[in-house]
Amino acid sequence: MFQEEQRRVEEAFFVQKLVATQIEEQLLPKLCFMIAEEIRDVVRAEAQAGKGLVETLSRRRTQSPARPRVQFDDVSSEDESQLQAA
């Protein structure tokens, strides 16, 4: 009876070690690879979106020159003479 119990304990430890080895050698590398692929896809998509944004902004800058914030009216010669007289 003691030998049967000892064998069961040994089998349980063997199965535990076998499962741990399979997790370490097969499952973890696959999970790491899958996570790395997802991260690469997200980074790639964000980089392309950012690149598109930079290109759009640079096109806007070259297509339409910046307008001054304050726009002055043209002063006619008549207005200038009145200003000089005052």
Chart the SSEs and their pairings:
Blueprint: H1 2-63, H2 77-85
Structure, explained:
By secondary structure, this protein is mainly α. The chain has one domain. 83% of the residues lie in helices and 0% in strands. The chain has helices at 2-63, 77-85. It is rod-shaped, with a radius of gyration of 38 Å. The termini are far apart. The mean pLDDT is 81.
What structural class do helix, strand and pairing data support? mainly alpha
Average predicted confidence as pLDDT:
81
Strand content: under 5%
Tell me the series of helices and strands, N- to C-terminal: HH
What are the main properties of this structure?
mainly alpha; 2 helices; rod-shaped
In short:
The chain is mainly alpha-helical and 86 residues long.
